[in-house]
Amino acid sequence: MPDNNQDSLRPAFLPGQNDVIACGPNAADELLRDLFENTIELIQSISPEGRYLFVNRAWRETLGYSRDEVRELNAFDVIHPDHHDVCRDLMAQIVAGEDVGRFETEFVKRDGSVITVSGSSSTRVEAGVPTSTRGFFTDITEQKKLELERELAYEEMEKALAQVKALAELLPVCSWCKKVRSDAGDWDSLENYLLSHPDIRVTHGICPGCFSGMKVKIDPT
């Protein structure tokens, strides 16, 4: 029994007679349907008005919508509000037949969470009139998360190297009172000098020698 619900969301870009390679047109239709339904890419076809004409299984399962819910959606119900203006411009270019290349955007899932996708889209034209767009997207949310973590780790490394460089610089120290000369020519304690550099954190402790001296001073015996 054919799935009428599935047929009503059938893509308008299945192969025609001239696209058949090693099987009949009906078999080619089924092969491509199987490919669309089992690929990990999110595939969609949208009308010029923004209504979904087709979405594949990966699209539905990733975003959490049922077939019936998809029919009630507009493309901008799924695109994150922060990307509406950019996507409107992109869709206008795509419908006009322009090649916009690959682009990134964010989709809002049914549960409200957000994923980042990367993909491309093109227009289907019949008798000189754009009838739909077809888009192929990859969920790159985890990839973007890893990239952000690498960037933060790199920033931390750069900060640590800067601190090491600051500490490695030669300090003009008075050989008698141990004060440090600042860039302005003033002499101050080493502690105040370090505190004046926000990249250097100062902690306090007691060295063993001083600690032993303190014990001698406070020990009544």
How do the helices and strands follow one another from N- to C-terminus? HHEEHHHHEEEHEEHH
CATH second-level architecture of the largest domain: 2-Layer Sandwich
- Percent strand: 15-25%
> What shape does the CA trace take?
elongated
What's the main sheet like? 5 strands, antiparallel
Strand order of the biggest β-sheet: 2-1-5-4-3
In total, how many domains does the architecture comprise? 2
CATH C-level class of the largest domain is Alpha Beta
Task: Please count the helical segments.
Answer: 9
Descriptive overview:
Mean pLDDT is 81; it is low at 1-10. This protein has 221 residues and is of the alpha+beta class. The strands form 2 sheets. A 5-stranded antiparallel beta sheet has the order 2-1-5-4-3. A two-stranded antiparallel ribbon has the order 6-7. The longest helix has 28 residues, at 141-168. Strand 6 and strand 7 (187-188) form a beta hairpin. The chain folds into 2 domains: 4-141, PAS domain (Beta-Lactamase), CATH 3.30.450.20; 166-221, no CATH class. It contains 9 helices and 7 strands. It has helices spanning 4-8, 25-38, 57-63, 67-71, 75-78, 84-95, 141-168, 190-195, 208-218; strands at 42-46, 52-55, 103-108, 114-126, 129-139, 180-181, 187-188. It is elongated, with a radius of gyration of 32 Å. The protein starts with a helix and ends with a helix.
